[in-house]
Amino acid sequence: MIMFDVSWVIISIFMIQHAVCKEFPKGHLQYLGEHQAANGDITTITADQITSLEFYNNYVAKNKPLLIKQVLQRSTPVLKWTDQYLKEKFGKLRVNVDNNKQENRLIPSSEMEFQQFLSIYLESKTHYMISTMNMEMQKEFPLPTVINCDGFVSRFQDFVMWFSGGNTRSKLHYDNVENMYCQISGTKHWFIVDPADAEGHIVIDHPEGAFSGVNVTSVDMLKYPGMQGLQWWSANLTPGDCIYMPLNWWHQVTSPPSRNMAINIWWAPVLEEVVNFPCQRQHVGATLSDFNFVYGEWIRYNIGEFIKSHGSVVNYTVMHDNIVHEHTGVHVITKENFDLLDINGDGDVTIMELLSLPPDIVHKATNYAEIGALNTNGESVKYADDEPDDDVNYYQEL
Ligand SMILES: *[C@@H]1O[C@H](CO)[C@@H](O)[C@H](O)[C@H]1NC(C)=O
Ligand SMILES: *[C@@H]1O[C@H](CO)[C@@H](O)[C@H](O)[C@H]1NC(C)=O
């Protein structure tokens, strides 16, 4: 009798487990990454092991992420930025603050004085400062040596400060711009997916911002079955580390609850037709304030990809019809603008013509479109009033 009972219990447990496993795949309703262990950490080196040209050739040109330790030395002033110091020096600046830490793109951000943010952020469950650095702040941030040559500094798009009391969680997303992200205070954990491994696994159900709607604190494996078997890599940033996140690589970034600050540098991707990446001159001792944002380079990359997707040569009709300002629907390539790009006047624009133009002319040819606001598929997207309509492709939470 006892034997019978015991085996019945064992069989029951086995059956229940089997049923649970069958209905709920591993990681179901758990944090992103619980479905299987990471393949490992991404390649990790120290800053003194690599030059900017090696970094370009071995990582950027190959679209490979890299974690670089000790980019910011302990003596770097930014690593010693206290709230008191920030308040005294920059307190009156207006900064942009998101009203949510679990990224939700439907909640609009707001502006406030930096000193107000500083007085509330540690206790706040919602405030997350995501704001372009002011010139005075840029002066205190040394240009990382891995990106200190002309090819990089001539493509800078934005320098953004990410500041909170921690406990932040981004969406699973990718960006259409290159990213060097440096931790100043606290730690950040990165969940990283190679675009080649994402295919058939990650569903882009929000194409306007290239992100997945999957709830990263509670992954619904039934709604997103592709998340099973998704291979991923990890990286953990501590103060002084920078991570290179290539465009189009999927990532999701989490911070534990405590003061957390990072600064990132966005730069425009380099078209693969660029054969000589200019990297002879090193800007030794430079700070971020020494450089301007060159928006024409981001436009150049996007128009270049557009030209390639149309057989490497495009005429006025093709450009005019397809290149559209995302929010207004305006076809920005007028005949006059087309003629700026068609250097030899033969009625076609080629990649080589595009590459030979100064960035300002490329930008002018789109009526100085703001970053992230051009669509090259002929479509414009109108957002509902309650949705953010600025820079939706460009700023992605980290
Ligand atoms: C994600 O899941 C958690 C846990 O179930 C829930 O509290 C949270 O509201 C969900 N987030 C969204 C955006 O649905
Ligand atoms: C422009 O190029 C498209 C696609 O190659 C072609 O169909 C069209 O006839 C061309 N238009 C002119 C005016 O040459």
Name a few traits of the molecule.
398 residues, alpha+beta, Jelly Rolls, Recoverin, domain 1, 2 domains, nine-stranded mixed beta sheet, three-stranded antiparallel beta sheet, 12 helices, 25% helix, 21% strand, binds 2-acetamido-2-deoxy-beta-D-glucopyranose, signal, 2-oxoglutarate-dependent dioxygenase activity
Give a description of the structure.
Residues 1-21 form the signal peptide. Keywords: Signal. It comes from Ciona intestinalis (Transparent sea squirt). This is JmjC domain-containing protein 7. One of its GO terms (molecular function) is 2-oxoglutarate-dependent dioxygenase activity. The chain is α+β, with helices and mostly antiparallel strands and 398 residues long. The protein folds into two domains: 44-294, Jelly Rolls; 296-375, Recoverin, domain 1 (Orthogonal Bundle), CATH 1.10.238. The chain contains twelve helices and 18 strands. It has helices at 2-23, 52-60, 83-90, 114-120, 135-138, 150-153, 195-198, 295-309, 316-322, 335-341, 351-356, 359-364, and strands at 44-46, 66-69, 94-98, 110-113, 128-132, 156-166, 172-173, 178-185, 188-193, 211-212, 233-237, 242-245, 250-254, 257-267, 313-315, 324-325, 348-350, 374-375. The chain has a nine-stranded mixed β-sheet. Strand 1, helix 2 (52-60) and strand 2 form a beta-alpha-beta unit. One 2-acetamido-2-deoxy-beta-D-glucopyranose is lined by residues 315, 317-318.
> How far apart are the first and last residues' alpha carbons, in Å?
60 Å
Report the portion of residues in β strands: 15-25%
CATH architecture of the largest domain: Sandwich
Low-confidence stretches: 383-395
Question: Radius of gyration over alpha carbons?
Answer: 24 Å
How many domains make up the 3D coordinates?
A: 2
| Main sheet specs | 9 strands, mixed
- The oligomeric status of these chains comes to single chain
Q: CATH-wise, what's the superfamily of the largest domain?
A: Cupin
**SSE order in H/E notation?**
HEHEHEEHEHHEEEEHEEEEEHEHEHEHHE
CATH fold category name of the largest domain? Jelly Rolls
Ions and ligands: 2-acetamido-2-deoxy-beta-D-glucopyranose
